[in-house]
Structure formats: C-alpha cells, structure tokens
Amino acid sequence: MTDTDLLIETMDNRVRRRNDRRDMFKMVLGAAAVGAGAFAFASPAAAQTVTDADVLNFALNLEYLEANFYSYAVFGTPIDLALTTGSVGTFGTATGGRKVTFTDPVVAQYAKEIANDEIAHVKFLRAALASAAVAQPRIDVGIDPNGAFSSAARAAGLIGATTAASPTFFDPYANDINFLLGAFIFEDVGVTAYKGASPLIANKAYLEAAAGILAVEAYHASIVRTVLYAKGVDTRAAATKISDARDSLDGGTDLDQGLGDATTSNIVPLDSNGLAYSRTTGQVLNIVYLTKAAVSAGGFFPNGLNGSIKTSTQQA
Amino acid sequence: MHTTPILSEVLERSALRREERRGFLRMAGGAAAAVGGMSLLAACGNDNNGTTPTPTPAPTPTPTPTGAINDGDVLNFALNLEYLEAQFYSFAVFGTGLASTMLDGVGTQGSVTGGRKVTFTDPVVAAYAREIAGDEIAHVAFLRAALGNAKVAMPAINIDGGATGAFTVAARAAKVVGATGTFDPYASDENFLLGAFIFEDVGVTAYKGASPLLTNKTYLEAAAGILAAEAYHAGLVRTVLYAKGMTTPALRTNAGLISDARDSLDGSTDDDQGITSTDTTQSNIVPTDNDGIAYSRSTGAVLNIVYLNNASVSMGGFFPAGVNGAIRTSAAN
Known about the structure:
heterodimer, A: mainly alpha, two-stranded parallel sheet, 8 helices, globular, B: mainly alpha, 9 helices
C-alpha cells in the first residue's frame, strides 16, 4: 500500500468500523433465519472433496451476477430467462437494475462488450455443466438504500449512513462513473476467484477454459481500472475506497489494491512477484455477501449461492 | 507495481533483488510441500541445448521421457518471453536494460540489440509504461527464482527500431509501414503502444495454452497469476489505443493490422482480434472466442510470432539466436 492509501485508510477506519458493526448486526439478523440450517448442511459438504462441477458451479453463480448487472446496464433487462433455469438449487430472479444513459460513447461500447462476454460465460458454463448446472439464485443488483450496491458503497465510505428520513443509496446506473464503480466492485474479484480456484480443477480441458475466463475477467478489470484512472482524482479515490472495503471484508491478508496516484498508476493489482492475487471461495463469498462472517446468504445473493460451495469464511 | 514507487532504477533494482530472494524462499517453501523441493525442477531442467545443467543432489531424479516436457521446460519457455518483454519496457522507460545479475543461466547468454528511452508526451501513458516495466521485471525475477539453477540465460534479443530491427520486420509484415519503411516503437507514445501491443496478447495466449502442461499446482497457480497480469497489461494497452483511436483512427487500424499479421504467422486458426469489432462502431478490447473465452496458443504458435516466421525454425525475429531451453522450435504452418 502507498502512503496515500494508508492515509485514506486511517481516515476511513472510524467510518468503516462503524459500518462494519452495522453490517455485522444486519447480517446477524438477516442470517439468523437460515444460519442454523445452512450450517448443518455445510458441514457434511465440507468434508467431501470439491469436484470440478462444484467449482464451475461456484463460478456460474458469480457469472449470473455479473451478466445480470451488465445486461441491465446495457440492455435494460436481466439476462434471458432461458439462461437461468436449472434443476440444481432454487431459482431466483435478478432484480433492481436498469439501463444506464451513457454520456461517453466509448464507455457505452465497453459496457456492451463486457455484457456480451459475461452472458457468453453464463452460456459456456451452463453448456459445460449440462444437467449439473445450478439454477440462477436470487440476485440483488438494485439501488435500494438497504440493497447490496448501497451497502457496499456505504461500507466503502462512498455514501453516508441511511435513515428513514434521509435515505442514502448508491445507483450504479445513474451515470458513466457510477456504472464504472459498480463494475469495479466485481471485476477484480472475478480474477482472484478464478485464480484461487485454478488448482482445484482436475480436468485439464476445464482448467484451460477457466484460464481463458480468468484472462477475460482480467481484460475487463483492466478496462474498468484504466478508464476510472483516466477519469481523474475523484474516481481514483472512490475506486481505492472500494478496494479497501473489499480488503477489509476478506480477512487480514492484503489482497486488493486501488488505482494509485497521478504519478504512479496501479492499473494492475499484483503482489511483489508481479502475480495477481488469489482468493479462496470463502473470501470471494465474504465480498459478494458483504460480510466478514461465515454465512450462506447476503449482499448481492440474498438467498445465497446455489451449489455446494456457498459459505463465506469467518474473518477476524 | 503498487508497492514499488518508481523513484529511480537503482532503488527499484535493489527492491527487486530483495523481492527475488523473498520470492525464492516463498516458492521453495511452497514447492517443497508439493513436489519435494526445487531440486526436482533443477534436475529436470532443460537439457536439449548442449549445456550441462548444474548437478543437483536430487533424491530420486525422475527420468524425463524423450520428447516429453516438464514444468521446468514450460517455465523456462515463459522466462524467455518475459526477458523479451522486460527488456523492451525497461529500455522504453529507463533507457537501459535488465541488470546484468538477471541474465545468467543455462544456455547461451546473449545481448540486447536496440532499445532506447521513449520521450513520452502523455504523462498517463508514461505512468502506464513505468507500471508495466516494473511488472515485467518482477516476472523475470520471479521465474528465475522459481527455476533456481534450472533457469535459462537470457538469449540474444533484438528490440531495435531501426531499418533492420525486428520491430520493423514485424511492422512491414503487418503493413503498418511500407516495404521499405521503418517502425520505431521508441519514437512516440503511439508507436510505443503499438510496440507493446505486438507482445501483450501473445503473452496471454501463451500462458493460457501452457496452463494444462503444468503438473505442479503451485506453479500452475503462479502461472495463472502471471496470465492475469498479462491480461491486465493487454487490456490496458488495448483500452488506451482504442481511446486514442477516437482522434487518431490509424491506431485502431494499425492494431488490427498487427493482429492480422499475428494470425497469419501462427497458422490457419483465427485466434487473434484487433481492437475494433466487425461492427466498426463497437469496441473489441477483449479478444475472445464465441464462448467469451480468451484464446490459447501452442508454444510453437507463440514462437511463430516472436520469430516472425510461419515455418518451423528455431530462431529469428525478436530472438535472433532462438530462445534458450527445451522448447525452441516454431510450428510449421
């Protein structure tokens, strides 16, 4: 981390601690209903070996999320219903998104390109998994003050606390910058998720395909980071706050990086060996569930993921 | 790299040396649990280029079947490509190449022909160039540390922008310049970006194509990390070329020509794409197949591109004396 990052982090710590507590309470309350049952389910599953299908289905859940976010932003609709069915798991709708009125034509083009790639990933993984493919779970990509995007933005310090009298919310569909920040929340996570899962995949054909999706997520992340960096000081700072929030959710290890400053860009988040980071499935779920706790639902997946990998990691 | 503020080359070099040692220890520790330590890799390193690998007290050296490739061969193949990228970016940013301590190893050590500092006009492009240079130097350090005594030396590299340089040969083949024109990637921001474009997507397809060849899970995950870094780099370069192409359309056209040239060198399969879609009002920053998946290249196809030759040869283009290591022959297309 740079000195600037440390400074920002120090300034944000009080806010974050407050938000963490609030999120924790919210999660505890929200998870209470499913917590006991999920734990009983998760324990025997954890004792089993994770299969390639488990890993690919985990990825498919994340692709459902990304594809729906971009599909709403670009086309104004969720992904085709025919791409969401499955006999495994409980089907849910993806709700709350809307079409972005882009002002920068280049950003509009990038958004469309990414949307089509993510939809292709859903199709590919469903075809590869065939009858073992999980159904799309319930997905929240809306702008409700208590919804996932607003909670994530609040945890990052991008918006203040919400009250009934003066609600605060984050709308990733409001303009180009907000869309890019919304995209930023996901893209680097996809890279670290695929990298972390790479040694879990036994079949070489699946491994190479997963490496191909990993590469595409990294291209996407790079587009989003490059454009946010070029847009100036404020967007750099906002992206870095989101990065810090991800880092605070997924445990003590520093696995995330912001965009750098005017003289030293940091488009590529890498360790000192020049390698991208890995996240475990549990750490990825900490981020998309927006919690440091071990739970099986929350955040962008109000009813949790479908499939055998669905529990986030308990972080200190 | 975020953790390495680029104050001066000297500072960075010392930081890298420190990281190299740290990386080595981390790698050795991880590998010890997985495959019984670095000695296995050292023992199985390349042996097809007439040099004698340093004897290593491996407990049970595993005989390698003739023609089979091992993890060391694959990582050394990658190291050759990282030498090339690191030297190009290092010269473009710092005006000098890799430190002499980062060049030795198995095989014939060569020197660098060409390369000079770019006078950047856009400070953002300069920042990106510094960042990528730092990353590629880190990749060289990391792979050398991971390979230990089995690492190959840097082969002869041609990154010259003059009339006889490899960049000019590539640019003429791509028709970015005419049959007698020259292409100097150090002459301007735009040329630098096009020079970088020649390499970056190739790195992505090379690491993806090599991923199923790696047997050790630790190396596999590390290679996936480099693959990601190369894809970030490629995405960065393509995004900037596309954005600048709004006012300088030739950048988009030339990126397409370079992509086409790569495609014609590496065989009949279409595994490359320019930065504009067939619908010319739409970007194509991410080169993917219909499944939204990045392409793979075999080692032979990668060598077709860096040797600038669609025939089966063992040297040429950016590597005038060939790459070092067991994997060194391009495919016959």
